[in-house]
Every structure is written in structure tokens, then in C-alpha cells.
Amino acid sequence: MNATNPMRDTMPTGYTEAIKDGITFRQFALRCARGCFANILMHDENLDSEIHEYKVSNYHLDKIKRLEDKLYELEKLTPSEQEKISMKDYKEKFNELEELRRDKVLLEHAYRKMLAAVNKWKPPTDEHYVLKKFMIEQIKESIEHDCFDPFEVFGEPKFLYGEDWYYKKRKEILDSISNHKNEYSKEVEDVKRMNEWNKKLFESLPEE
């Protein structure tokens, strides 16, 4: 048997493979810069694609606008409207949990039916018992993980009277607005830092 030649088996990385084609130091540095935090957003793009200036997305601003509109509509509700919507929310949540519980019962039935079939199966050789054991373990783990009573795990929904429902909803919306504002501020700082990092990199590299 011939010994493996480590020199012949080595492969260039995606970053170094173009060195043999004569890329410049600047080109190589910019390819490698794609693997740094500053350019993580270009992770799925071609290594030769140009590093560009990043811009802050409108995602969080759009979310904030929609939440503010939702808050405005909430604050216009009359007490009777609050009560009506509160009851509607309660029924929807209760029905969702009921439907989920039915699905879990059917799922557990399917798992246990398959488990019975596996237990009944006689492996053709001793080595095949490993497969049988593995199948049993997989089903038991799935039963433990997937088959639960949603009402026990998530709790039975509580009906809130109009005013209580209103203040709960209002707090949820305000908390969401606050979270999106914080995330937007973080994104602004991240984009600023990434663009500054790339700017300094470009300035440090020799022109071609």
C-alpha cells in the first residue's frame, strides 16, 4: 500500500485558492476580510464580490410604525369593545390549545403504534439488535419530547375583563416598541462600526 502524500492531499481554502492565479495582496486581503465580523452580512456572496458600504435596514422602523398604529387603534376602543375583543382573544387561545392537544394525542398514538411494531420485530442477526434498540430509543425520546398536554405546559388561558385586557395589551405593545427601538439602535451602531472597519482597511491597503 502506498503511503499517502500529505503534500498532494492538501487543498487550498476558499480564501487562498486564487493565490495560484496571481491575485494581488490587496485582492487577497479583501477576500479574507469577508470572513471577519465586519462583513458577516456578505457570508453567502461570492468571495470575489466587492465589499460595499452597509446600510441600516428599515425592518425595525417598519415594525415600530405598525405597532404605533396598533397602539393608536387600541386606545380608541370603548370599554364594551375592549370586553368583546377580550372574549374573542380568550376563545381563540383556548381553541388553539384544544386543537394542539388533539394533535398531540394523535401523534402519541402514531408513535406508540410504531413502537409496538418495532418491539414485535425480530432482527435477523444479533448485530441488527443495535438497529432495533436505536429505533426504540428514537421513538421513546420523541414521545417524551413531543407528546405533552399543552394546557399543562402553557397553562389554561385566563379571561381578562375589558380594562385588564386593555392594559395588558397596551403594555405588550409598548414593550415591543421599546425592544425594536433598542434593536434599531444596535443595528445603527453595528453598521457604523462595520463601515468604519472597512474604510480603515481600504485606506491601509496599497492601491493597484
Structural class by helix and strand composition: mainly alpha
Main pleated sheet: none
The topology string of helices and strands comes to: HHHHHHH
Total discrete domains? 2
Instruction: Count the DSSP helices.
Output: 7
Sheet-strand content, in percent, reads under 5%
Poorly predicted segments = 1-9
The shape is flat
Provide the helix percentage.
Answer: 55-70%
Question: What oligomeric arrangement do these chains adopt?
Answer: single chain
Mean pLDDT: 91
Number of strands: 0
Keywords: Coiled coil
Coiled coil: 80-117
Structural summary, described in words:
With 208 residues, the protein is mainly α. It has two domains: 6-52, no CATH class; 59-192. 66% of the residues lie in helices and 0% in strands. Helix 3 packs antiparallel against helix 7 (162-204) and helix 4 (79-120) runs antiparallel to helix 5 (129-146). The longest helix is centred in the C-terminal third of the chain and has 43 residues, at 162-204. The chain is flat, with a radius of gyration of 29 Å. The protein starts with 5 loop residues before the first helix and ends with a helix. Mean pLDDT is 91; it is low at 1-9.
